[in-house]
Amino acid sequence: MDPNTKPLRLTVIIASNRHGRFADTVATWFLDRARHHDDLDITVLDLADTDLPTALSHSPAPEVAAVLDRVTPQLESAEAFVVITPEYNHSFPASLKNLIDWHFTQWQAKPVAFVSYGGISGGLRAVEQLRQVFAEMHTVTVRETVSFHHVHGQFDTDGTHKDPEAPNGAAKVLLDQLAWWALALREAKSVRPYGG
To answer: What pLDDT, in 10s, does the model give residues 40-71?
Structure first.
């Protein structure tokens, strides 16, 4: 089988681990859109279920190693990432920065796209900071984003978006660009290993 016809392995990272978070609504909405792309094999990494300490270590304790044994292979095998992030105090959650910092090669030469939400900024201030952080990880960040401004007013109580045309279109563009980059980088790495 031609490796370039295999589905692209996408890991969707839910960045918020806050109690009472709105992330579940946004993630469910986005995953419903993503599953319309037959070229994607999707897994979810929910940071509410991932308890990594903020004290980094080259020799993690057994309980930390157990978490890494679950999380690291998922990041390693991914060919692309979508980060679903809120904006907290003009930035992104500490849980996400912690996940990033515990890893390095697992991010390299892969595309990352962002779905953000929040108040007036829609989480875009968090996204702009994440672009800088992920550049240091040798990733390619996708230009297009999906952002929800004043997010609580955009969804019904059952999680249905009240006016879906624009966000549905934005999600399609984001996923199309992400898939293009993931395939381009897959092809490039099959010819020449990344020299990060």
So the answer is: 999 999 999 998 999 999 999 999 999 999 99
- Domains of the chain as residue ranges with CATH: 3-191 (3.40.50.360)
Smallest Cα–Cα separation from 92: which of 64, 69, 124? 124
Please state, in angstroms and rounded to a whole number, the distance separating the CA atoms of residues 56 and 98: 9
Token pair belonging to 82: 């979508």
Q: How far apart are CA 180 and CA 176, in angstroms?
A: 6
Mean pLDDT, the chain, as a whole number? Answer: 95
Q: Is 26 within 8 Å of 84 (Cβ atoms)?
A: yes
- Confirm if 30 and 171 have CB atoms less than 8 A apart: yes
List, for residues 139-186, the tens digit of each pLDDT value.
999 999 999 999 999 999 999 999 999 999 999 999 999 999 999 999
- Using a 10 angstrom Cβ sphere, with 0-12 exposed, 13-18 middle and 19 or more buried, the burial of residue 111 is buried
| Structure-block tokens of residue 81 | 């990432």
Give the burial string for 150-166 (b: 16+ CB within 10 Å, else e): ebeebbeeeeebeeeee
Phi first, then psi: what are they for 114, rounded to 5°? -130, 135
- The yes-or-no verdict on residue 2 having pLDDT over 90 is no
CB–CB of 45/74 below 8 Å?
A: yes
Helix (H) or strand (E) holding 113: strand 111-117
